[in-house]
């Protein structure tokens, strides 16, 4: 199938999400669309898949203009889509999920399990995508769930074009390698692929051609041989240096001491397994690791939202066991949560209210049980100026702000009160480059005032740029503490459970990326990829 | 409850930035827009329109005129017109001002107090609704759906009653003490679903529904006990409260038949308190934060469980005050299983109509009180169920603004349609 | 309560459909409507919290009011329903404001409210049903239903095969418990006279405690209560619960050997379960109300004022045992004779049926 977009434009009110996009996907080609968060990639794909109607412009398939009023039309036209967030019915089997919406039926509408299984096996065989049709989806590792999505997309009546929307965001490095291979195979078999990503290395590895969009416009058409720097600067519009100016750290006394921390999840899995970690004043410790290896639980345990099953957390030498989050915050714990929308801000609250969200009961913001609106407003005005928060007014709800500015609200909140220890989890996730640089320099400045900083990030580049010491977490344990000049290959190996000196370690049979697999269940598809070849992708867990 | 902004389709966005807006144009634009004020107004109008249709079809005589509509249409049309007009006038007379009584007053055959009777009845029926509406609305703001106002009110009734007849005290102490007892009893019962949610995760809707049943049956049992049961009557009715604990009537100087009592100003006070609590206090800050996003609130160090429990206790206290208002007011001669009516459940609709806003809740309670008083007085010319029916239709439209928008072809306002959403579900 | 608007709406919508079908009909000749619009005498009734369609005393009372209007075209009747006792005052006041000449409050709990309004309005005639008032312009209408229930209990004791019968009530209020007292006394009498040992489930006269479903509306609750009694061996059910009592009749219809006795009205006529009903303990509300409205009309037109009280008894026919209908053959002539004798003794006063809920101040 040859897909062509001509002048495709989508406006939301006065906001133009996509502006005059031209793009051609040749048959059997992997066409990468590269762009930062908010560049207009998802809007583009949603128009292609019939979820959104273009404001102007047209979509041509094999030269014929088409118009989709819903995904059904797109599927009928031969377009399949794998969403970033899977659309699977967890308790259903693989076969049932694949046939969802186009069920195989016998007479009188009775479901035919046999036909459904056969359909799955046919597709798996044709494209070499191994799947057990009877497995229950929610029990499968994330990578396999994604394979189900791909098979589902390919099972359309005549799917010839596959849209993959940031497919690697949730995968482990090994799974990413495998996915890229699958994509290659599909393309060789004649399927066109539109691959949405903001990961340069993956694009380089698999794409035949690259279209870069920024602020809704096509800004560059590149060959995959283009350098990372070239792609990155096209994406962000200027040359990016992830280098942060900083002086060598001068670590002081231990501010955070974690010893033997163990947390068992509700499902009975040890998500933290005797973890030890120390952070000193005046240093940034970067916690590297593929997401889902216990980072979330570690951060939440330090804040006090998760009760450890055993082990000790001491802040400033004092065991905080039993102290409430409020008490720890009051004692000088700063906390930037990894999931900003969920844990960081109350979206419906104003900028001002969010800035005092964890101090609203302290003087001067509270007076005899009432909120002192004047003091709150003043703090908000100060913070907006200091942290360059782009907002109409302090009264504007945070939901109206961009991701970067919402993150600055959190930074402002945490940096505007006395603090001795800071947990910064994914501090620049989904934040534009300018804001990222700002946040990075604030973190370094924070360190220089003597605060102990624990930086949790799935972006290895961020860790390299900021950390004075790197700790690698794997399966709920710190598997290595290394200097910041340690080569990527070494850290990459540690992140997937290999040893520091273990040159060609195969990936562990366990699936670190899978969220809490049932204890008794062995992951069915141990990825057998050669780790050394994809160390570069070890930072693939971000989104 | 939260207000959710549905993304407005781009096509409906007004692109009128270039036009020079004058006041009339802006006003006209406002009137034809599905903003929350206009949706409320149109919901009321539509409800009365549908009510009119139902009045016509449920009246046997008027219906009979439609059987020969094509032979003599004027019969059906005039009969319908008179029926609807007279019915709504009757509702108005029962709720606000009795025109008949006005004539008699003008002729010197009635006292001024008689003129105020419909208003007094409206306020009397509105008073418990103010409290229960606040009880539901406050919980809404914390993201809790307090279905349990009925049960909390019943316990408030009993608490106030026990102090009301059980102690012998001078009125200055007795009445406030009985009111406080009602609030405490309601608060204690209201805290239960909050506590269950905080400690076990039990959904407050389920637990408060069940607690309503428990309260209703407990009431039946309690009335029958020797401690509470009337000493003079064999009916299922309690002892009356002492004179010293009875809510004094507000306008007894004008006429003894004016039942509105001091529970009304107490209700207004409760609304002001709730407003302050929600929008000015640190506790209200916490309630709203937790209601919008409990995860971010927990991360900011707020204790979610205790917020739920405390909010439900305060809500229960407000519902308990509704019970106290009944026990010590219109029900002071003794409580039966019917005294509580369904004020607690009606509080849900009042809170919805008032958009969980104390001011709106008072207005909604007054409207519902007027409907109830009007319908009661308009019997038998108007079916007494008309008030419940109108209430139901109003809330239906309020809950589905898209319906109002579609029926009247209103434009989508800038921020999108405001749909009420009880987060508790 | 909550279902009523729905019913109204449903009736309305179906009526629209019918009207639409019939809209081509011919126009009638002009004449006034037939509901005594120009009547000089307005008789008004305020229901208690049960509402007018309670299939019990509100409904029967209203039927009596309407019967009076039917008989005398110079009488117009008006109805105001209450949903709780807090509605009594405004409803009574509204009837005064409407200019009613005769105002009936139904239910003993309304008596005090009636008294208050009556004292304020000494020129208007009032009546209280199932309550006793000493106010001069309030006429008390009461029924000694213990007498008819006594006969019903006697019949039940004579008819039971299992030796166990059961009664249960709606809510524990005097108009209910008086039936249960009488029923229990009738069984006791049969046991004493005939040497039987019939057991009664669901009511203890001494303790004045028993089984109540706490509703007059929920027939499903009545059914499950009845089923429980049936499994305990009861073969005759005596539900005193208005519409909720229908549950006992469905239970009886599902169990071949189980029958029932109805209250207030002759259930053979008023329910669909005539085949299950041995008899009914009737309470002549309809007649009493009709008579009192007519008497009030006469009083207003120069006749003697109605005052004091009326107590319906077996003697004056205010209460009675309904015919056996389908069970006429099943009830032995011996039993019938005994019933006649007992009736005579009660009328004579040689046999007194006691109940804690008996009408006061006879």
TrEMBL record, chain A:
<protein>
    <submittedName>
        <fullName>ABC transporter ATP-binding protein</fullName>
    </submittedName>
</protein>
<dbReference type="InterPro" id="IPR027417">
    <property type="entry name" value="P-loop_NTPase"/>
</dbReference>
<dbReference type="Pfam" id="PF00005">
    <property type="entry name" value="ABC_tran"/>
</dbReference>
<dbReference type="InterPro" id="IPR050107">
    <property type="entry name" value="ABC_carbohydrate_import_ATPase"/>
</dbReference>
<keyword id="KW-0547">Nucleotide-binding</keyword>
<feature type="domain" description="ABC transporter">
    <location>
        <begin position="3"/>
        <end position="240"/>
    </location>
</feature>
<feature type="region of interest" description="Disordered">
    <location>
        <begin position="501"/>
        <end position="543"/>
    </location>
</feature>
<dbReference type="InterPro" id="IPR017871">
    <property type="entry name" value="ABC_transporter-like_CS"/>
</dbReference>
<dbReference type="InterPro" id="IPR003439">
    <property type="entry name" value="ABC_transporter-like_ATP-bd"/>
</dbReference>
<feature type="domain" description="ABC transporter">
    <location>
        <begin position="256"/>
        <end position="500"/>
    </location>
</feature>
<keyword id="KW-0067">ATP-binding</keyword>
<dbReference type="GO" id="GO:0005524">
    <property type="term" value="F:ATP binding"/>
</dbReference>
<dbReference type="InterPro" id="IPR003593">
    <property type="entry name" value="AAA+_ATPase"/>
</dbReference>
<feature type="compositionally biased region" description="Acidic residues">
    <location>
        <begin position="532"/>
        <end position="543"/>
    </location>
</feature>
From TrEMBL, chain B:
<feature type="transmembrane region" description="Helical">
    <location>
        <begin position="123"/>
        <end position="142"/>
    </location>
</feature>
<feature type="transmembrane region" description="Helical">
    <location>
        <begin position="179"/>
        <end position="198"/>
    </location>
</feature>
<feature type="transmembrane region" description="Helical">
    <location>
        <begin position="312"/>
        <end position="335"/>
    </location>
</feature>
<feature type="transmembrane region" description="Helical">
    <location>
        <begin position="389"/>
        <end position="408"/>
    </location>
</feature>
<keyword id="KW-1003">Cell membrane</keyword>
<dbReference type="InterPro" id="IPR001851">
    <property type="entry name" value="ABC_transp_permease"/>
</dbReference>
<feature type="transmembrane region" description="Helical">
    <location>
        <begin position="260"/>
        <end position="278"/>
    </location>
</feature>
<protein>
    <submittedName>
        <fullName>ABC transporter permease</fullName>
    </submittedName>
</protein>
<dbReference type="Pfam" id="PF02653">
    <property type="entry name" value="BPD_transp_2"/>
</dbReference>
<keyword id="KW-1133">Transmembrane helix</keyword>
<feature type="transmembrane region" description="Helical">
    <location>
        <begin position="34"/>
        <end position="57"/>
    </location>
</feature>
<keyword id="KW-0472">Membrane</keyword>
<feature type="transmembrane region" description="Helical">
    <location>
        <begin position="154"/>
        <end position="173"/>
    </location>
</feature>
<feature type="transmembrane region" description="Helical">
    <location>
        <begin position="205"/>
        <end position="224"/>
    </location>
</feature>
<keyword id="KW-0812">Transmembrane</keyword>
TrEMBL record, chain C:
<comment type="similarity">
    <text>Belongs to the BMP lipoprotein family.</text>
</comment>
<dbReference type="Pfam" id="PF02608">
    <property type="entry name" value="Bmp"/>
</dbReference>
<keyword id="KW-1003">Cell membrane</keyword>
<keyword id="KW-0472">Membrane</keyword>
<dbReference type="InterPro" id="IPR028082">
    <property type="entry name" value="Peripla_BP_I"/>
</dbReference>
<protein>
    <submittedName>
        <fullName>BMP family ABC transporter substrate-binding protein</fullName>
    </submittedName>
</protein>
<feature type="signal peptide">
    <location>
        <begin position="1"/>
        <end position="22"/>
    </location>
</feature>
<dbReference type="InterPro" id="IPR050957">
    <property type="entry name" value="BMP_lipoprotein"/>
</dbReference>
<dbReference type="InterPro" id="IPR003760">
    <property type="entry name" value="PnrA-like"/>
</dbReference>
<keyword id="KW-0732">Signal</keyword>
<keyword id="KW-0449">Lipoprotein</keyword>
<feature type="domain" description="ABC transporter substrate-binding protein PnrA-like">
    <location>
        <begin position="44"/>
        <end position="349"/>
    </location>
</feature>
């Amino acid at each position: 199938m040859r897909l062509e977009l001509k002048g495709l434009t989508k406006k939301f009110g006065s906001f133009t999400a996509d502006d005059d996009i031209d793009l051609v996907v040749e048959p059997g080609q992997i066409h990468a669309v590269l762009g930062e968060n908010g560049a207009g990639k998802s809007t583009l794909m949603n128009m292609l898949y019939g979820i959104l109607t273009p404001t102007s412009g047209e979509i041509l398939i094999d030269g014929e203009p088409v118009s989709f009023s819903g995904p059904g039309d797109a599927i009928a036209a031969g377009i399949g889509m794998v969403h970033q967030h899977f659309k699977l019915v967890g308790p259903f089997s693989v076969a049932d999920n694949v046939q969802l919406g186009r069920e195989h039926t016998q007479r009188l509408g009775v479901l035919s399990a046999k036909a459904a299984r056969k359909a799955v096996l046919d597709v798996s065989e044709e494209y070499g995508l191994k799947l057990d049709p009877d497995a229950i989806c929610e029990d499968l590792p994330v990578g396999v769930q994604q394979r189900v999505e791909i098979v589902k997309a390919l099972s359309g009546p005549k799917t010839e074009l596959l849209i993959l929307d940031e497919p690697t965001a949730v995968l482990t490095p090994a799974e990413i390698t495998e996915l890229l291979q699958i994509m290659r195979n599909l393309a060789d078999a004649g399927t066109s692929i539109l691959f949405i990503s903001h990961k340069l290395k993956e694009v380089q590895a698999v794409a035949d051609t690259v279209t870069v969009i920024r602020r809704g416009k096509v800004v560059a058409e590149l060959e995959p041989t283009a350098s990372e720097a070239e792609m990155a600067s096209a994406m962000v519009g200027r040359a990016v240096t992830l280098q942060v100016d900083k002086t060598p750290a001068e670590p002081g006394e231990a501010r955070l001491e974690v010893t033997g921390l163990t947390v068992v999840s509700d499902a009975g899995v040890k998500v933290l397994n005797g973890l030890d970690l120390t952070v000193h004043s005046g240093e940034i410790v970067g916690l590297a690791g593929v997401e889902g290896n216990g980072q979330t639980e570690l951060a939440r345990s330090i804040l006090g939202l998760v009760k450890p099953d055993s082990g000790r957390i001491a802040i400033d030498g004092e065991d905080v066991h039993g102290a409430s989050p409020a008490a720890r915050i009051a004692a000088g714990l700063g906390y930037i949560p990894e999931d900003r929308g969920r844990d960081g801000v109350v979206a419906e609250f104003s900028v001002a209210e969010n800035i005092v969200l964890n101090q609203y009961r302290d003087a001067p913001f509270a007076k005899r049980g009432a909120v002192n609106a004047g003091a709150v407003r003043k703090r908000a005005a100060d913070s907006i100026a200091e942290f360059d928060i782009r907002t109409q007014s302090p009264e504007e709800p945070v939901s109206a702000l961009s991701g970067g500015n919402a993150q600055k609200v959190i930074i402002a909140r945490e940096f505007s009160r006395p603090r001795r220890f800071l947990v910064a989890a994914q501090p620049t996730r989904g934040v534009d480059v300018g804001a990222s640089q700002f946040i990075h320099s604030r973190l370094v400045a924070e360190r220089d005032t003597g605060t102990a900083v624990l930086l949790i990030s799935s972006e290895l580049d961020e860790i390299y740029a900021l950390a004075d010491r790197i700790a690698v977490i794997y399966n709920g344990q710190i598997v290595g503490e290394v200097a910041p000049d340690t080569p990527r290959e070494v850290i990459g190996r540690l992140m997937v459970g290999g040893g520091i000196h273990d040159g060609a370690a195969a990936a562990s049979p366990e699936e670190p990326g899978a969220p809490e697999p049932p204890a008794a269940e062995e992951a069915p598809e141990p990825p057998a990829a050669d780790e050394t070849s994809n160390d570069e992708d070890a930072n693939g867990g971000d989104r | 409850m939260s207000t959710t902004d549905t993304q407005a389709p781009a096509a409906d966005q007004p692109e009128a930035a270039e036009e020079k807006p004058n006041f009339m144009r802006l006003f006209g634009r406002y009137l034809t827009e599905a903003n929350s004020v206009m949706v409320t107004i149109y919901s009321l109008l539509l409800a009365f329109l549908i009510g009119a249709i139902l009045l016509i079809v449920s009246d046997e005589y008027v219906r009979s005129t439609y059987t020969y509509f094509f032979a003599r249409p004027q019969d059906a049309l005039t009969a319908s017109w008179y029926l609807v007009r007279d019915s709504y006038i009757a509702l108005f007379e029962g709720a606000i001002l009795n025109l008949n009584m006005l004539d008699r007053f003008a002729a010197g055959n009635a006292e001024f107090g008689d003129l105020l009777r419909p208003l007094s009845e409206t306020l009397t029926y509105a008073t418990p609704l103010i409290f229960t509406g606040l009880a539901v609305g406050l919980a809404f703001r914390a993201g809790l759906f307090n279905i349990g106002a009925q049960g909390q009110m019943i316990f408030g009734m009993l608490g106030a009653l026990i102090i009301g007849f059980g102690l012998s005290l001078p009125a200055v102490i007795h009445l406030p003490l009985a009111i406080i007892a009602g609030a405490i009893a309601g608060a204690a019962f209201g805290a239960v679903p909050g506590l269950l949610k905080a400690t076990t995760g039990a959904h407050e809707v389920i637990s408060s529904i069940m607690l309503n049943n428990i309260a209703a049956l407990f009431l039946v049992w309690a009335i029958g006990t020797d401690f509470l049961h009337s000493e003079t009557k064999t009916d299922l009715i309690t002892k009356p409260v002492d004179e010293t604990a009875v809510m004094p009537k507000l306008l007894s100087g004008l006429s003894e038949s004016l039942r509105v009592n001091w529970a009304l100003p107490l209700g207004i006070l409760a609304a002001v308190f709730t407003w302050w609590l929600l929008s000015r206090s640190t506790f209200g800050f916490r309630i709203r934060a937790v209601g919008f996003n409990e995860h971010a609130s927990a991360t900011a160090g707020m204790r979610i469980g205790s917020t739920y429990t405390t909010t439900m206790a305060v809500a229960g206290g407000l519902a308990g005050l509704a019970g106290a208002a009944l026990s010590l007011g219109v029900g002071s001669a003794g409580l039966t299983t019917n005294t509580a009516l369904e004020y607690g459940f009606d509080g849900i609709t009042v809170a919805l109509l008032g958009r969980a806003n104390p001011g709106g809740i008072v207005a909604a309670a007054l409207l519902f009180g007027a409907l109830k008083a009007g319908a009661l007085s308009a019997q038998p010319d108007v079916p007494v169920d008309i008030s419940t029916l109108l209430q139901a239709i109003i809330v239906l439209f309020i809950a589905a603004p898209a319906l109002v928008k579609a029926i009247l072809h209103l434009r989508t306002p800038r921020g999108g349609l405001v749909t009420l959403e009880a987060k508790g579900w | 309560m909550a279902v009523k608007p729905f019913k109204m709406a449903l009736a309305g919508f179906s009526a629209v459909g019918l009207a639409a079908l019939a809209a081509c009909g011919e126009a009638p000749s002009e004449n006034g409507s037939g509901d005594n619009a120009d009547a000089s005498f307005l008789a008004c009734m305020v229901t208690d919290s049960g509402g007018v369609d309670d299939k019990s005393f509100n409904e029967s009372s209203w039927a009596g009011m309407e019967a009076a209007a039917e008989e005398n075209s110079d009488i117009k009747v008006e109805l105001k329903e209450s949903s709780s006792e807090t509605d009594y005052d405004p409803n009574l006041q509204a009837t005064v404001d409407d200019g009613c000449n005769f105002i009936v409050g139904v239910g003993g709990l309304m008596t005090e409210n009636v008294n208050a309004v009556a004292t304020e309005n000494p020129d208007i005639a009032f009546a209280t049903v199932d309550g006793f008032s000493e106010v001069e312009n309030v006429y008390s209408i009461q029924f000694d239903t213990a007498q008819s229930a006594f006969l019903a209990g006697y019949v039940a004791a004579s008819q039971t095969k299992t030796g166990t019968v059961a009664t249960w009530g709606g809510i524990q209020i005097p108009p209910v418990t008086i039936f249960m007292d009488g029923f229990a006394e009738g069984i006791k009498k049969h046991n004493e006279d005939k040497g039987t040992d019939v057991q009664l489930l669901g009511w203890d006269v001494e303790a004045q405690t028993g089984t109540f479903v706490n509703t007059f509306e929920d027939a499903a609750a009545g059914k499950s209560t009845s089923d429980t009694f049936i499994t305990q061996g009861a073969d005759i059910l005596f539900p005193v619960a208005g519409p909720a009592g229908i549950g006992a009749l469905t239970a009886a219809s599902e169990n071949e050997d189980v029958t029932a006795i109805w209250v207030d009205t002759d259930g053979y006529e008023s329910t669909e379960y005539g085949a299950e009903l041995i008899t009914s303990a009737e309470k002549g509300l309809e007649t009493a109300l009709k008579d009192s409205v007519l008497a009030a009309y006469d009083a207003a037109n120069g006749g003697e004022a109605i005052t004091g009280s009326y107590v319906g008894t077996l003697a004056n026919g205010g209460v009675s045992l309904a015919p056996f209908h389908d069970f006429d053959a099943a009830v032995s002539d011996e039993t019938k004779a005994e019933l006649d004798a007992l009736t005579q003794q009660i009328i004579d006063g040689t046999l007194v049926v006691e109940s804690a809920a008996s009408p006061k101040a006879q």
